[in-house]
Amino acid sequence: MIKLDKSLAVRRISPADGHYFFGYYDLQPFSQNEQYYLTHKTDFYNRLQKRGDVCELGLIHAKTGKYEKLTTTKAWNFQQGAMLQWNPTAPDSEIIYNDLTDGEVVGVIMDINTGQKRYLDRGVANVSPNGKFALGINMSRLYDFRPGYGYAEPADLFFYKNHSTEDGVFLIDMETGRSKLVLSMEEIWKFSGSFFKEDEKMIINHITFNTDGSRFLALVRNFPPRGGKHDTAVITANADGSDMYLLSDYGVQSHYYWLNAKQIAIYSDGKELSCSRGWANNYILTDQTHEGYIMADGYFVFDNHMSFSSDRKYMLADSYPNPENRMQPLGIYSVEKNTFVQIGNFYSMPNSTTDVRCDLHPRWNRSGDMITFDSTHEGFRGIYAIDFPENIRETLFES
For residues 348, 351, 356 and 359, what is the CA-based torsion angle, rounded to 10 degrees? Predict the structure, then answer.
């Protein structure tokens, strides 16, 4: 494993008239034709969202940098926004996001040209690659556990239940807008909960389809008393909730990224693997097996948001701020050369509470020649870009 340090030129692509951010590292902000870049816009940045707070949703014109407001939402947070993304079936003209209607979280599909909206009966947590289905989870429950990842309203209907038979993973038909429960929290508890000495409240923190939409992965966590430590299990299942598999038992499991329909890159303790070092690292796991390997053995020992280029040759990775100087590193890992190059280090403004922090959440554009990320290094939330054309790719990893 070789580490190099080669800073690349950075430019801000969002205006300076407010706080702009896209959100999570595993969503795609660029339209298919790469003419538009999706964004959230707020008038505050250093407190948690609360009931009634409105977030603008809009797009940035790639050629001119002009911001265009599209709509607003009350179902959002600073880490994952409103799950704003392009509709895979219309990736240049329709967006998907969450909002509140009559006090309930719903998914919305909106035509950016006409403003016409159609509604899903439940908010989306992830959309299948072909756009036919989405997964829904209880975002109100998540707010009580980690406010930066859930929605401030409505209240969790199952607040006093540790693992309800009526709550869990919902499969949403994107054409009809109707959802059905395919995997309940009670089923997940019976399948995996024996790890705990006592019956504990459980949540789903992050859930995504694999690359062909046949299965999904969910990070399942216990909900300890305030201030207590939580553990995480990695659960996979078919899209209809069948054939559940405990990919990794409760322990250290964090950010992940599907490489293909079977393999996942994940920051984990890798406890089921024969190659495990006994501490957390980036591992490659193979679904429905306990086979895998360490990525860049001994290097990715700090939690990171990883995202791979479409050809899977390069991986972006950030990490949390250095507590001494508040600087956040950003780098690219070459799978072929087993080399990590740090391409930038960005100041992270202090925050009033952990969940309003601004992670870089680095993301690739669709063609793989540009990197974008969120940052506060200019004193406000902004969206920034780094060009990564072929000539830079060829020279970046040369010592």
Answer: 10
Dist. CA 106–CA 98, nearest whole Å: 6
* Spatial contact of 145 and 156, defined as CB atoms under 8 Å apart: no
β-strand 104-111 against 36-42: which pairing, if any? unpaired
Distant-in-sequence, close-in-space partners of 296: CB < 8 Å, separation ≥ 6: 1, 282, 333, 338, 340
The 3-state DSSP class for residue 129 equals coil
Strand pairing partners for 347? Answer: 327
Enclosing H/E stretch for 26: none
Q: Give the position of tokens 């992270």.
A: 348
81/73 Cα distance (integer angstroms) = 10
pLDDT in tens, 338-396: 999 999 999 999 987 788 999 999 999 999 999 999 999 999 999 999 999 988 888 88
What strands, in cross-sheet order, belong to the sheet with 201-209? 201-209, 215-223, 232-238, 245-251
Query: What does the radius of gyration of the chain's CA atoms come to, in whole angstroms?
Result: 20
Split at pLDDT 50, 70, 90, the class of 3 is confident
In degrees rounded to 5, what are phi and psi of residue 233? -115, 150
Closest alpha carbon to 304 in 356, 263, 360:
360
Cis peptide before 29 (omega within 30 of 0): no
Q: Which two tokens stand for residue 351?
A: 């925050």
Longest dimension (CA), the chain: 58
Instruction: Report which residue type is found at 212.
Output: D
